[in-house]
Write a structure and sequence with these properties.
The complex is a heterodimer of chains A (265) and B (278). With 265 residues, chain A is mainly α. Helices cover 69% and strands 3% of the residues of chain A. Chain B is globular and about 65 Å long. Classes of the chains: A mainly alpha (265), B alpha/beta (278). The A-B interface holds A 133, 161-162, 164-165, 168-169, 172, 213-214, 217-218, 220-228, 232-238 and B 50, 53, 55, 76, 79-80, 82-84, 86, 88, 90-96, 99-100, 103-113, 116-117, 120, 136-138, 152-153, 156. Chain A: Transmembrane (T) component of an energy-coupling factor (ECF) ABC-transporter complex. Unlike classic ABC transporters this ECF transporter provides the energy necessary to transport a number of different substrates.
Chain lengths: 265, 278
């Protein structure tokens, strides 16, 4: 489980760590959106420099980002190869039946590669510098307008934060049950597909039952402490919009403007 | 002494049961008292706690908390007055970290944020967990989590503190810590404490012990009186305190021991006297 870097959080005190999660979430989303507007080398170099600048700002070593790309590298290469072989146009360098390597193909392949890497770098940057709870808070805040459409925003955000809080607890329990079942002779991850699936049953059922009991205990404890739904509650956690957030929005605006300019130049 | 809890003619049975868990129980608890509720498994101790807090509804009889009758209309008022700490430290931790968990009850009451910060800090200092304020539950021991649960209740400033086997999953060290905090709350801040426990030594610290057996109150007296029943307690599925056990063992050796119940300190004093007389 430790191999997955996507979705992990590294505590720190850098400029990016201190940004309001709302601005981070929205800006990373918008950044991914404008990546699709880039259409020539100048624009990609601009975005690349910007991303690199952000990574430097986060004070997290580049290794983490490369690790983030690693699980997806085969998917990326597969897409790039398809682009190279099946895009026609410009001078042809090599041809065999329906497959051909053309100038356009190579360029497009390069663009697709850049796009993938930039998107992964940016989303990794978001999760590495923002704790899951901050993301949940930001989501709640951004979903608030949906309350008008009768979306239970408070309930959804409470569910997300309880789910996040119980992830480590349930992981521990899974580990415990697995070891207990191993001690009784269950082999996990061995044999054919059917056998492996069957081995999961003695793990899954106790885990489910445990989760039900936990849920009941938790609900009782919450009720005893006066929880009666989202209405009329105050919030202890609080995020303030700072000067830095405005600054990052301005920088992003500039970036988008330059990008649009370079695009048609 | 003013009564904070008045239970009269209480009967209760769970829907799937055919027999009453208990019938026609009367019990009053005065302000500032520390009452230990003991009894074997399934004697209905936890159920009484849940009835007081309005988490369960009685079949018959009335419960009054601070003059308010526990019913659908008053239940949220009652829950402001009653704070409950449950058995499993992990399953009652709502917040993502320590300070947020302590603030949870205050959030529910709609208390302003500045006020909340003050109260959370004060409550965490009281249980000496303030330096852990930013820690996540996964990084805390069971005893620490239980102290946080207590802080969450203290911050809400209830009048009655109910501990539903709150120390049963802790190691001896954690147990001692939690009991000491409860003792301070009871003696210095005049909290009314109802502790439900299997730990006889914990019950011996209370001012009053109520023994539940088969849906009836078997005895309601000071620990001294209850524990002087000695061996007879074993027959209702309960244990006796260590000093009682020591007395029984000495009796077997043919030594004349006093009949009345002695605390640990009393036992030490008596032993010193006994040895010096020889």
């Amino acid at each position: 489980m430790n191999k997955i870097i996507l979705g992990r959080y590294i505590p720190g005190k850098s400029f990016l760590h201190r940004l309001d999660p709302r601005s981070k979430l929205v800006l990373s989303f918008l950044f991914i959106l404008i990546i699709f507007f880039a259409n020539n080398w100048r624009t990609y170099i601009l975005l690349g420099i910007f991303t690199f600048f952000c990574i430097l700002l986060s004070k997290i070593s580049l290794g983490f980002f490369l690790k983030g790309v690693r699980p997806l590298i085969w998917l990326i290469l597969f897409t790039v190869v398809l682009q190279i072989f099946f895009t026609r146009g410009g001078p042809t360098y090599w041809q065999f039946g329906p497959l051909s390597i053309t100038h356009f193909g190579l360029v497009n392949g390069g663009y697709v590669f850049c796009r993938f890497v930039l998107i992964i770098f940016m989303s990794t940057l978001l999760t590495l510098t923002t704790s899951p709870l901050e993301i949940a808070d930001a989501l709640e805040n951004l979903m608030l307008p949906l309350k008008k459409f009768k979306v239970p925003v408070y309930e959804i955000s409470l569910m997300i934060s309880i789910a996040l809080r119980f992830v480590p607890t349930l992981m521990d329990e899974t580990e415990k049950i697995m070891n207990a079942q191993r001690a009784r002779g269950v082999n996990f991850g061995e044999g054919g597909l059917i056998k492996q699936l069957k081995a999961i049953v003695p793990l899954l059922i106790p885990l489910f039952v445990g989760a039900f009991n936990r849920a009941e205990d938790l609900a009782t404890a919450m009720e005893a402490r006066g929880y009666r739904g989202g209405e009329g509650r105050t919030k202890y956690r609080f995020h303030a919009w700072h000067k830095n957030d405005t600054l990052s929005c301005i920088i992003f605006g500039l970036l988008a403007a330059i990008l649009l300019f370079l695009r048609s130049w | 002494m003013q009564n904070v809890i008045e239970i009269s003619d209480l009967s209760f049975r769970y829907p799937q049961q055919t027999d009453d868990l208990f019938a026609h129980i009367d019990l009053t608890v005065g302000k500032g008292e520390w009452v230990a509720l003991i009894g074997h498994n399934g004697s209905g101790k936890s159920t009484i706690a849940r009835l007081i807090d309005g988490l369960l509804v009685p079949n018959k009889g009335t419960i009054k908390v601070c003059g308010l009758q526990v019913n659908e209309k008053n239940v949220w008022q009652v829950r402001k007055k009653v704070g409950m700490v449950f058995q499993n430290p992990d399953n009652q931790f709502v917040g993502a970290n320590v300070e947020e968990d302590v603030a949870f009850g205050l959030e529910n009451q709609g208390i302003a944020r500045s006020q909340m910060q003050l109260r959370v800090k004060k409550a965490l200092k009281k249980v000496s967990m303030w330096e852990f304020a930013k820690h996540e539950p996964a990084n805390l021991s069971g005893g620490q989590k239980q102290r946080v649960a207590l802080a969450g209740i203290i911050a809400m400033k209830p009048e009655i503190l109910i501990l539903d086997e709150a120390t049963s999953m802790l190691d001896p060290e954690g147990k001692k810590d939690v009991i000491q905090i409860i003792q301070e709350l009871n003696q210095q801040e005049n909290f009314t404490v109802i502790s439900i426990t299997h730990d006889i030594d914990e019950a011996a610290l209370a001012g009053r012990v109520v023994v539940l057996n088969d849906g009836k109150i078997l005895q309601d007296a000071t620990p001294k009186k209850v524990f002087s029943r000695g061996e007879k307690l074993l027959s209702v599925g309960l244990d006796v305190p260590f000093s009682e056990k020591l007395k029984t063992a000495l009796k077997k050796e043919g030594i004349q021991v006093p009949e009345n119940y002695l605390t640990k300190k009393g036992m030490v004093d008596w032993l010193c006297q006994y040895v010096s007389k020889k």
